[in-house]
Structure formats: structure tokens, C-alpha cells
UniProtKB/TrEMBL annotation:
It comes from Galdieria sulphuraria. This is Amino acid transporter, AAAP family. It comes from the Eukaryota. Pfam families: Aa_trans (PF01490). InterPro entries: AA_transpt_TM.
Length: 440
């Protein structure tokens, strides 16, 4: 662990980072023997965040409200928005305090040594990996609904896996940020079409939801995990800032992106639950009445989820490559490309296998939201910030930090995980394995 009082001296020993904490970074510089090319602006980071977070999550909000009811569901949406903005700002401040860090794990090592580093990596990348099967399942369902709703889902999963492996051969966020812009446009089109179809379905709808859901405590807890899943994503903020020319501007991206997220989450969630009531499903596009609009909405949803998968997959695969074959991460020779292809093939293959034998979309989202997201989103940022600030931390910061640590970081993780596991057990006997459609 590097003591915080020695960090200034450490930064002076890295000439290429002289401007990292406050000013614009140089075009190219060396860090740990790796050539860095910072290029992102804060507004492009907004699209990265939206492309990374808003997708499968927003389509689960109506279902989450159905499990919690109007009162608890909307209150929880507001609470999560505020908490994630606060914790995101903490990560932003720590990245400026310790500009040489490149990943969330680097931050953990700076404040708690090797234990902190591995604690972050295990939780962060387990959470990141759980995102991928959700994205693959949602995108495969969307592609099937677009082409042939009666076909076998597993076929489209194999098709999607091949497409994803191809696009993940891009290794730098320089191109991924444009994928995110494209993905954000696609999800906006999906949402517009979904709202139009919901408005049509509302004419014949007789369901208006419940103030407090009667679905049971465990279902409500699992539904709250879907909301946390929808907001989670701050565990890659350090990586995004590492690609920025002016990391000090990242706060603009945090506030802008979360404001957009809250507006769309609330609007889509309220409308979907009001129209379909307790019968709403996840994703909301599957609840739409059959027709051309449903097919078009699913087509744009498919494109958006592909972009989200590539962003998460890139971050996960780069982390794996940095540990297994660091010298080939940015090596575009034949050997380097082959090494990268093997890594993307293995991770995508594992995601495919997980989906084939564990096709519980809502439960996977909830498990990620209740088990890992509170740790990376609530617990770690506050623990690390407390360590970094030390005696200079104000009493208000300590009070807020304690509430988030105890209530959300610890208590909710335990209770929420119990509720999700309960739902998994209940759903296990009712959900058929995907490969069985090949024999029907």
C-alpha cells in the first residue's frame, strides 16, 4: 500500500502525469510501460455511461415497480439516483487525488493494499460478468422477436455470440464511445416506440397497479435489486476517467447522465406499470401487443444491447488480458490479435453456457443488484473515501457515509441476497432450460 502522504512524491516520479489531476493530459504518455492515449471529453463520457447502464436495466423498471408497488417503487428510484450520484462523486474525487490509478482495483490497492485490490477485483468483475448473460439473453430475445418470435431462442444466442466476439476485437474506448452513442440513440428509439405502443394498449387496459404490492416481501426485495441493477455501473467510472483528456470534468458527466437516467427510468417505469399492472414482464418490450411496432422496438433494442455488451465485455476482457498476457493487450500483431481473440472467445462462451443452463433473466439481474452492486456502488466508495480523507473528513460526510455503509452496503446486501435466492428457488422449477426447444 502506498501511504497517502507519499502520493504527491509518487506523482512527481511519473513525469507523464504532471497534468493528470487538474489539467489536460498530453496526447500520448507512458504509464507502467503502456502507451496511453487519453482522448475522451466529458460529453462523450455521458454517452459511455448511458450506453453502459441504460438498456436492460430500464426495461426492468416497470416489473420492479410491480413487485414493490407505487409508493415504495418510486421512493426507491429517487433514493438510488441520489445515492449513486453521491458515490460516483466520491470516486471522481479520489481519482483526482490519486491520478496514477487506472482501475477500481488500483484504487483499492492505494488505500488498503493488496487485500483492497483483490477485494475490488473479485467483486467488480464478478458483477461485470453477471451483466453479460443478462445482455446476451435480452439481445437474443429481441432478435428472435424481430425475426421470428416462434423460433428457438438458443439459436439466436449462438448467432449473437458470434456477432459479439467480432465487435469485441475493438480494444480501445476510442471507438467504443461511438458505439455507446449509437447504442444510446437505439435505446431512445426503442423507448419512443415502446411508449407509443403502450399508449395504444392503455386504451383497453384495466390495470393501474397497486400502491403497495401484494406480491410478498421477497419479491419486493428482488424487485429493488432490479432498480439497483439499472443504476449500477459506477464501478467502471475510474476506467472511463482514465481515458479522458480532462478527468476533472468527469463530474459533469455524472450529473448529466444520472439526471437523464432518472427521467427515463421514472417515465418508462410509471407508464409501463400503469398500463400493464401486475402482469407486466421483464423486459417491457415483451409485454407489448404483437405487431410491427413491437418488431421494430425489439430490433433497436437488439442493437443497443449489443453495444452495451461490447462495452462491458471490453472492460472485462482487458482486465483479464492485463493479468494473463499484459504485453499483448495493445499489440495488434498476429500473436497479439490471436491472444485477444482467445480471451474474448472464452468469456463469451462462458456467458453462453450460463444462459443455456440458468435462463432466469430477472433473477440474474436481481442477484447482481443485491449481491455485488451494493458492494461496488455503496460500500467500497465510502470506505475508500473515508480512508483517503482521514481526519479531514467533515462530520456530514461521516454521517452520510455511515448510513450508506450500514444500511445499503451491509444490511441491504444480506437481506437483498436472501430475497433474490428465494426467488431463484421459486422460479427454478417453472422456467424451462433453453436447449429443450431443440427437441420439441
Amino acid at each position: 500500500m502506498v501511504p497517502l502522504e507519499e502520493q504527491k512524491e509518487d506523482r512527481e516520479n511519473i513525469p507523464s502525469l504532471e497534468l493528470a489531476s487538474c489539467d489536460e493530459l498530453k496526447e500520448n504518455y507512458l504509464l507502467d510501460g503502456t502507451l496511453r492515449r487519453p482522448h475522451l471529453s466529458w460529453w462523450r463520457c455521458v454517452f459511455l455511461i448511458l450506453g453502459d447502464i441504460m438498456g436492460a436495466g430500464i426495461l426492468a423498471i416497470p416489473y420492479a415497480l410491480a413487485t414493490m408497488g407505487w409508493l415504495l417503487g418510486i421512493l426507491f428510484l429517487v433514493l438510488m439516483c441520489l445515492v449513486y450520484v453521491y458515490c460516483g462523486i466520491l470516486l471522481y474525487r479520489m481519482r483526482l487525488m490519486i491520478p496514477q490509478i487506472r482501475t477500481y482495483g488500483d484504487l483499492g490497492e492505494q488505500v488498503y493494499g493488496t487485500i483492497g485490490r483483490w477485494a475490488v477485483y473479485i467483486v467488480q468483475y464478478s458483477n461485470l460478468f453477471l451483466f453479460l448473460p443478462v445482455y446476451l439473453l435480452v439481445s437474443s430475445k429481441a432478435l428472435r422477436e424481430t425475426v421470428n418470435p416462434d423460433s428457438c431462442l438458443i439459436i439466436w444466442m449462438f448467432v449473437n455470440s458470434g456477432i459479439l466476439i467480432f465487435f469485441m476485437q475493438t480494444r480501445t474506448l476510442r471507438f467504443i464511445s461511438w458505439y455507446s452513442l449509437f447504442g444510446t440513440i437505439c435505446i431512445c428509439v426503442t423507448l419512443v416506440i415502446t411508449v407509443i405502443q403502450e399508449a395504444k394498449d392503455a386504451i383497453s387496459s384495466t390495470s393501474h397497479g397497486q400502491l403497495i404490492s401484494s406480491g410478498g416481501l421477497e419479491r419486493g426485495i428482488a424487485g429493488s435489486g432490479d432498480i439497483i441493477f439499472a443504476y449500477s455501473g459506477i464501478f467502471v467510472f475510474i476506467e472511463f476517467m482514465d481515458e479522458m483528456r480532462k478527468p476533472k470534468d468527469f463530474w459533469k458527466a455524472i450529473y448529466t447522465a444520472n439526471g437523464i437516467l432518472f427521467f427515463f427510468y421514472t417515465f418508462v417505469g410509471v407508464l409501463g406499470y400503469a398500463v400493464y399492472g401486475k402482469s407486466v414482464v421483464n423486459p417491457i418490450t415483451s409485454a407489448l401487443s404483437a405487431g410491427l411496432l413491437k418488431r421494430v422496438a425489439n430490433a433497436f433494442l437488439w442493437l443497443h444491447i449489443l453495444a452495451a455488451f461490447v462495452i462491458h465485455g471490453l472492460i472485462l476482457n482487458r482486465a483479464i488480458a492485463l493479468r494473463l498476457c499484459k504485453h499483448y493487450v495493445d499489440d495488434f500483431s498476429i500473436i497479439g490479435m490471436l491472444a485477444w481473440f482467445c480471451i474474448t472467445l472464452c468469456t463469451t462462451g462462458l456467458v453462453l453456457l450460463l444462459n443455456i443452463f440458468f435462463p432466469y433473466l430477472s433473477d440474474v439481474e436481481s442477484l447482481s443488484g443485491t449481491l455485488f452492486s451494493p458492494l461496488t456502488g455503496f460500500l467500497f466508495p465510502n470506505l475508500f473515501y473515508w480512508k483517503c480523507k482521514g481526519s479531514t473528513m467533515s462530520w456530514k460526510e461521516k454521517m452520510v457515509g455511515c448510513v450508506i455503509l450500514v444500511v445499503l452496503g451491509i444490511a441491504y446486501t444480506v437481506i437483498g441476497t436472501y430475497g433474490t435466492i428465494y426467488s431463484i428457488v421459486q422460479d427454478a422449477s417453472r422456467t424451462p432450460l433453453l436447449y429443450k426447444c431443440l427437441y420439441s
